[in-house]
Amino acid sequence: MDYPTSEYNEHAPYTSLRGQPSTAGPPIKLRRPLKVFSVTFASFIFLLSLVTLIINQSQEPLPTPNKNPSPSTPKATSFAKREPRGVAEGVSAKSNPSFFSDGVSYNWTNAMFYWQRTAYHFQPERNWMNGPDGPLFHMGWYHLFYQYNPDSAVWGNITWGHAVSRDLIHWFHLPFAMVPDQWYDINGVWTGSATLLPDGQIMMLYTGDTIDSVQVQNLAYPANLSDPLLIDWIKYPGNPVLVPPPGIETDEFRDPTTGWLGPDGKWRITIGSRVNETIGVSLVYQTTNFTTYELLEGFLHAVPGTGMWECVDFYPVAINGSLGLDTSANGPDTKHVLKASLDDTKIDHYALGTYDPVTDRWTPDNPKEDVGIGLRVDYGRYYASKTFYDQQKKRRILWGWINETDTEEDDLEKGWASVQTIPRAVLFDNKTGTNLLQWPVEEIESLRLNSTDFEEILIGPGSVVPLDIGVATQLDIFAEFETELISDSVVEEYDCSGGAVDRSPLGPFGILVIADQTLSELTPVFFRPVNSTDGTLKTYFCADETRSSKAPDVFKQVYGSTVPVLEGEKLGMRVLVDHSIVESFAQGGRTVMTSRVYPTEAIYGAARLFLFNNATSVNVKATLKIWQLNSAFIRPFPL
């Protein structure tokens, strides 16, 4: 393949990714278009205006912005570990305690905290949020319920928040749907799912934590089905409808799924648990009225060594076609997805398989890729996902929780914690036959503003190319990459853990998002082809957070996995950037990962976008289309 000379191939080697930038030696030289001065000046004016606005709106004056902030000295030097919040209460960890024993460890400013809030991802106005609950579509409105603490920015006092939208992008906050006010949920109204019956009724099953800290399943339903907003909910007077069965621990019985209708006319639900300490299981119950249940013998599925399963999800996908399926669909042209959130690892795993409605057993297509040991829903900062069937557009929509990777102290300081992903449409990948495809819902395109195209930019080995798009904090990026053939590539093993500084003749190469001009902070999203020891060419898709922030108490790691690339396909990624959230999709959504970043300098007008090629031998050509995205309207409903 011939690679023509380009004005972009005269850049300094990408050696800065080997470690922290050196204080000695020449700075990285980046050749910029002439119009960069005007863009930079405009960005500076925008930043100055925004900071001034924040200062005026704050109750206290902000400290003078520090151009080169440095970590402040912690008040104590003890590194005693604390148990994460939520574990003692019988749920997965809901915090990332600071290693420092007292106070925040970085001199964050209000302006920095303000920038971290997203512009088009759903989040409450304040306080703590975690997993999604009971999403559904009713009378023209999409409903999202979510785990919420109305009192603080840390987990506790879990209540069901409620929001509605016409398009899954712009949201109205509504009054709480359910609060912990009964003996069977006084310690928390935990995760639940909605089942829409053929006659229009809505059955909402949820886990309650009782006054005695026993996990039980409860039923609620709308007080008025003719209300499109479903504001008022009634808890069934006979709650709880399910208690832990014999052999199941009282704190390991939670998160009922959406029901599906069997060929015998009875509804089934499944609930996560574990047995014999290490075997993750999915219990199956059947019911005709959602108030009385029969526990079926055995399990829907069980996988040794995976531990407690929570937030189980179970749904069909069509083998061929571009439409989603109702949860009760089954037949020769369907496969069933079984997904579990693993309490031990805090990772969402899924597998494809076959469901037998007579025996109520699910069998994985590939036992080596079973639930908990194979594919992940998302390879990044992501947990407690849940899908629902959108009967309006005949699609299956996936929600997921992006939790924080800073400390509780920082969350309390800024007054909020956690974000939901952009809703994703889910389909079976009929090209590979081995995985799902996840893709942002089409409604996200309504936020697109101006776009910029870059055609066949040549990126030489060890180089960085700035992309002149202006401020780079709210973006929808499509990028395709082509590499030349080389004969001196080496055989190696690889797993993304080396990050963007782990160089080979073939890679890595990709984009740098939320980066500042000097590359002192950056988040690479990249491909890395590998000639593996089994003689095959594998392609890894990774995101490297290790230099995303100068703050020392932020949890930063490298995410990623292999992505199937079929013959004749170019390497392609789509990346959504929304301030501190980066959602990345490879090869049409075969592999997906979410990053949570907290930069200290690459914020507001200082955030930039770059191409990079850290390979030692191969040349790469990149073609991109990049949209600036508007902000979504997320505000209280004008009741």
TrEMBL record:
Residues 121-440 form the Glycosyl hydrolase family 32 N-terminal domain. Its EC number is 3.2.1.26. Residues 62-72 have a biased composition (Pro residues). The keyword Membrane applies. Its main location: other. Keywords: Glycosidase, Hydrolase, Membrane, Transmembrane, Transmembrane helix, Vacuole, Zymogen. The chain crosses the membrane at residues 36-55. InterPro entries: Beta-fructofuranosidase_N (IPR021792), ConA-like_dom_sf (IPR013320), Fructan_Metab_Enzymes (IPR050551), Glyco_hydro_32 (IPR001362), Glyco_hydro_32_C (IPR013189), Glyco_hydro_32_N (IPR013148), Glyco_hydro_beta-prop_sf (IPR023296). Pathway: Glycan biosynthesis; sucrose metabolism. It catalyses: Hydrolysis of terminal non-reducing beta-D-fructofuranoside residues in beta-D-fructofuranosides. This is beta-fructofuranosidase. Residues 16-112 form the Beta-fructofuranosidase N-terminal domain. GO terms for cellular component: vacuolar lumen. It is found in: Vacuole lumen. It holds the Pfam family Glyco_hydro_32N. Belongs to the glycosyl hydrolase 32 family. It comes from Manihot esculenta (Cassava). Residues 443-628 form the Glycosyl hydrolase family 32 C-terminal domain. Residues 1-24, 61-91 are annotated as: Disordered.
